[in-house]
Amino acid sequence: MVECKEDAKNNDSFQLNVAGKLIDFGICGRYNCPVASFLSIDKESVIGSIHNYFLDFFGDSIEYYWVVSDYKLFIPRLQNLSVCLSIGNMVDIADRFPSSPVLNHIENSFPMNNPFSPQSKFYQADSLLLILNVKSLLAILEQFQGRQASLTCTNSFDIRGLTEFVNRWKSGEACQKLEYLKVIILPTTEISWTEMLNAIGVKQIDETKTPPTHVLPRVRGWRCFGQKTDPIISHTYVVRETDNHVASISVHREIFSFGVWNKTEEEFLAMMD
After folding, report:
1. Which of 69, 75, 138, 195 has the most CB atoms around its CB within 10 Å?
2. Nearest alpha-carbon partner for 171 in 85, 121, 238, 248
3. Which of 215, 210, 152, 211 has its CA nearest to residue 182?
4. What domain of life is recorded for the organism (predicted)?
C-alpha cells in the first residue's frame, strides 16, 4: 500500500469495491504485485476496509500481521491484527508509540544504548530480538512481560544480572509468561557459569538419563512462520516456587538459554521414566 498514486501512474489503474469502499489499485513494478493507492487522510478507512474484506473472506480464525520497518508509519488497531516492528536504531523509538497496540515482535539492527522507559509498552511485546548494551539488557531482564526473547549483549556483562533474573523467576516475581530466553554475551569472555548455577540453586537430572528437548514455535510473526526456538537439551533445571513449574537451563561459552516447561517438576521428571 502507498499513500499516493505515484506507484501506479505508469500502470493500468483500476478500482475495486472493498468492503463498501471504492479503492484505487495499480500494479507495482518494483514488486510486481497489486498496490492500493490513497491519500494520507484516507489511510485509516482504506486499511480498515481492506482488513475487513480479509476478515470476511478468510474469517477471524487467522492471525494477520502488520509489518512496520519505519516508526513514522501508521499502526492501525484492527481485529486479529498483530504488529511486528523492525527498526535499525531504537533510540527514542519506544516513546513514539504511546497509543499503539501491544506489539507481537520487535527487532533491531544496531545496539540499543539506552533502555526503554519503565512505562514502555515494548516490554509487553510477545517477542524480542535485540542487540543491546548491558544497561538495556538488565532492564529487559527486570521488566520483560512477554513470551520469548533473544538478546545479544555487546559489552562486558556482570553475571549477577542473570542470577537475579533466575531467582526472581523462581520466586514468581518476574516474567511469569516467559517461555524462552536466549542471551548471547559478546565479545566472548571467560564467564563463571558454575558460580551463577550455584547461586540460583539448580537441580540436576540423573546423568544416566536423556533429558527432554525444550523447543517451541517462534513468536516472530509472518517472516518466521513455522520456525522453532533453538533446542535446549540440558540436565540442569530450576523450579518456580509458586506453581512448581520447571525451566531448563543451558550454559555454553557465551550463551545462556532458559526454557520454561508447562509442566510441574513431577510431570517433567516423569517424561524420562
Report:
1. 138
2. 238
3. 152
4. Eukaryota
Kindly report the length of the chain.
273
Who's near 36: CB < 8 A, 6+ residues apart? 1, 2, 23, 24, 25, 46, 50
Yes or no: say if 141 and 153 are a contact pair by the CB < 8 Å rule: no
Q: Tell me the C-alpha distance between 8 and 156, whole Å.
A: 51
CA-derived radius of gyration, the chain: 22
Sheet holding 21-28, edge to edge: 14-18, 21-28, 33-37
Helices (H), 144-264: 160-171, 193-200
Burial class (CB in 10 A: 0-12, 13-18, 19+), 258: buried
In one-letter notation, the amino acid at residue 4 is C
* Contact indicator for 127, 218 with CB cutoff of 8 Å: yes
Give the N- to C-terminal CA distance of the chain in Å, as an integer: 55
What count of other Cβ atoms lies within 10 Å of the Cβ of residue 37?
A: 21
